[in-house]
Amino acid sequence: MKTLIRFFAAFVLISLTIQAMAQQPSLQYFRPYDQSGINMFETPKDDMTPFDGVKVRVGGNFAQQFQMLDHEHGAGTILDPNGDGVNENELFPLNSGFNLATANLNIDAQLGDGVRLSLITYLSSRHHSEAWVKGGYIQFDKLPFAPGLDDLMKNFTIRLGHMEINYGDAHFRRTDNGNALYNPFVGNLIMDAFNTEIGGEIYFQKNGAIAMVGVTGGEIKGNIKDAGDAKPNDDNANPAPTFLVKLGYDSDVSEDLRIRLTGSMYYTGSSASNSLYSGDRGGSRYYLVMENLAAAEGTNFRSGRWNPGFSDNVTAFMINPFVKFQGLELFGTYEMAKGRKSGEAEDRTATQIAVEAIYRIGEKENVFIGGRYNTVTSETAPGTEIQINRIAGSIGWFINPHILMKAEYVTQDYNDFPNTDILFEGNFSGLMLEAVVGF
User: Fold this and answer.
1) What domains, with CATH codes, occur in the chain?
2) CA 395 from centre of chain
3) pTM here?
4) Residue 34 and residue 11: Cα distance in Å, rounded?
5) Could you tell me which residues are beta bridge partners of residue 349?
6) Which residues pair with 260 in a beta bridge?
7) Residue-wise pLDDT tens digits, 11-29
């Protein structure tokens, strides 16, 4: 306990120093990385920030967890085929301790009136200890080089680049490596729909109505290879584009009540390696849960999540209701997906439901308490289903708009897996503590 107290005290001191140093310019049509960015989804069109020249904003996100989780299962012994007598189903021995600290570097630039650039770099992540670029995009809310379109752009936004795709609303509330400030919990959803893809999105927003269409390359990186006749029976020989659609409504009904409802669709007919449900290379917050002795933090970085494995083609729909009444927030996710990986003859299905309730306390809503229920049912083969259930409760405290301390208790059960699978009758549970900085 003394170690934790010293850690959090040092973390707060460092964070206050960062805050004192950071003099940030105001940018147009921009989602802040601090508390003021919470419950912001698409960037608004009613931004009144004037343009007064090119500006560059350098910000960051930092997150550190202390993990106290246990896991167990009922899986039978599976010996390593190398004949060394190692049980491949023996769980990794977990102990309480600190996870790897994660960090993001955020560079945002105002390049013109209504023209903004965003570039995010992961300085440290679970999957990569070295720095690497998550992605970047350019956003046009005005077209200063085409003044005849000024009236049209009052309701339209154009976003182009290698960017986080706007499928569903859950990705606006998730943890993105070091950026854990928007998430009232420590973990993301079990089936975590998130990817960075190369393409473009066009938005329309007026009087609460929201519409978006997008087209991307469908993969986490570029692919210009023409396989020709090398694989005549392989549907993945020449990947197809991905199409995204979102429709919704978001309005303040009164001073105390806000209602939002959106529906999203993601479709790709063929892909060499689609990663809609495995694209978060930053990794899960639940380190090495339900992994075997050979696991490593960086290699097995998706612990606790479920990837249905739709790497060839996928069709997915997500519905997200959101209601905020004074300090109470209700957010839901209903997701249906089907697809297959290369070599499979039939599509499989997966369904996810998540419901969370958050109550924020105080005039500045700087203290919160919340609960989440999340369940996934997924076919591992046509007609064969597994189910994963999670319950999580959290409490949090914004020391100031840039610094968040939160704690989460989580329990997750694995049902209907075969008794030869390491996840058979599996469960992990325990306490997670997380400290977060965003500016």
Assistant:
1) 2-438 (2.40.160.10)
2) 20
3) 0.91
4) 16
5) 338
6) 250, 322
7) 554 554 455 445 788 999 9
Burial pattern 214-230, b for ≥16 Cβ within 10 A else e, equals bebbbbbeebeeeeeee
| Tokens 């009613």 belong to residue | 46
Burial of 274-291, coded b for 16+ CB within 10 Å and e otherwise, reads bbbbbbbbbbbbbbbbbb
Helix, strand or coil for residue 367? strand
Classify residue 122 by burial, with Cβ atoms within 10 Å: 0-12, 13-18, 19+: buried
Going from the C-alpha of 18 to that of each of 57, 88, 106, 107, 193, the distances in angstroms are: 14, 45, 14, 16, 32
Task: Give one word for 362, left, alpha or beta, with left for phi > 0 and alpha for psi -120 to 50.
Answer: left
Identity of the residue numbered 202: I
CA atoms within 13 A on the CB side of 226: 1
Percent composition of the chain: helix, strand, coil (DSSP 3-state, to 5): 5, 45, 45
Contact 178, 62 (CB under 8 A): yes
User: 118 in helix, strand or coil?
Assistant: strand
The DSSP result for 130-198, as a single string, is S-EEEEEEEEESS-TT-GGGTTGGGTEEEEEEEEE---SSGGGSS-BTTB-SS-SSSS--SS----EEE
- The end-to-end CA distance of the chain, in Å, is 28
Which tokens in the block code for residue 338? 């089907």
Q: Are 82 and 300 in contact (CB under 8 A)?
A: no
Cβ contact 192:279 at 8 Å: no
Distance CA 237, CA 227 (A): 5
- Name the residue with tokens 């039978």: 76
Burial of 38 (0-12, 13-18, 19+ CB in 10 A): buried
- Closest C-alpha to 165, from 122, 105, 204, 219: 219
3-state secondary structure of 3: helix
Question: Buried b / exposed e across 69-84, counting CB within 10 Å, b at 16+?
Answer: bebebebeeeeeeeee
Under-70 pLDDT residues of the chain:
1-22, 83, 225-238
Residue corresponding to tokens 């650039």: 117
pLDDT score for 227: 56
- Comparing C-alpha atoms, which of 169, 167, 164 is closest to residue 322? 169
Question: In this structure, are strands 132-140 and 156-164 parallel, antiparallel, or unpaired?
Answer: antiparallel
129, 153 in Cβ contact below 8 A?
no
Here the tokens at position 271 are 């892909």
- Name the helix (H) or strand (E) containing 27: none
